[in-house]
Amino acid sequence: MAPETLLRSITAHAELLALSADDPFVRWGIPDPLTGAVLANHGAVAVERLGRRGRGLWVLPHSGGGRAAVRDLLGALALGPVEELGVTGISLPQPYAAELAQTFALGPGGEWDWMWTTRVPPVVPHEDRLVVLDDNRDAPELSALSTVHSPTGEGDPGTGRTGLWLGIRTPDGELVAAGAMQSLESGAPHLAGIVTHAEHRGRGLGRAVTAGLTRHAVAEHGVCTLGMYSDNPPARAVYLALGYRTACAWHSRRLAGH
């Protein structure tokens, strides 16, 4: 029997959620109803996603499946579905990075954590200084702050992707910290573009921005999510202290040639 015939399609989010044992990433990170192909084998599942950098796949173990199940699923995907779907990148939990490299020729990528909380965070210093910023009017300041002090930030001011910007200004009006609340394809709020001016770091300004955005998200939606690069211990400490937990530490790679 060819490996691809072992894959079955999942068409309901509830089925995927049950298969994943109510995984928080599946609950809040994957849209309901499902918007793309979902293919599963005996112990792993691939979920199609359409992101900023093209069409990709989330690959996750399920039902106690481990390395063998992930390897089998990747092998089956390589026999046709990846090409048929036009997949340009794959993300899977970091412990399975070797299985991905053994199956596909890979391009660049990164290691990052997807985190979530349903808890109202504790009040932290400087929250009383938070001001609401305008995605269009304040876009030049936000872009300048990010470009100089956090080039990898993804707040995308001026694009309409952000529903709420919060920031902190000095008494003379200089913007020294900011952050965005956007929406995932699932509709769950997602923090992005959190940045602090280099000369003002270590004072808790980024923590205050994160706390304020999280407070708003949990009050309005009951949950808040974010992504962070895995090699950023200071940011992780801030998020954990505010009640966040890691749902998955991802290994994301573009496929060679894309």
Q: CATH homologous superfamily of the largest domain?
A: Gcn5-related N-acetyltransferase (GNAT)
Class computed from helices, strands and strand pairing: alpha+beta
The fraction of residues assigned to DSSP E strands is 25-35%
Average predicted confidence as pLDDT: 95
Tell me the helix content.
Answer: 25-40%
Number of strands: 12
> Helical element count?
8
Radius of gyration: 20 Å
Q: What's the overall geometry?
A: elongated
The largest sheet, given as strand count, sense and whether it forms a barrel, is:
12 strands, mixed
Q: What is the CATH topology classification name of the largest domain?
A: Aminopeptidase
> What distance lies between the first and last C-alpha atoms, to the nearest angstrom?
31 Å
Q: Give the count of structural domains.
A: 2
Order of helices and strands: EHHEEEHHEHEEHEEEHEHE
Q: Outline the low-pLDDT stretches.
A: none
CATH class category of the largest domain = Alpha Beta
CATH architecture of the largest domain: 3-Layer(aba) Sandwich
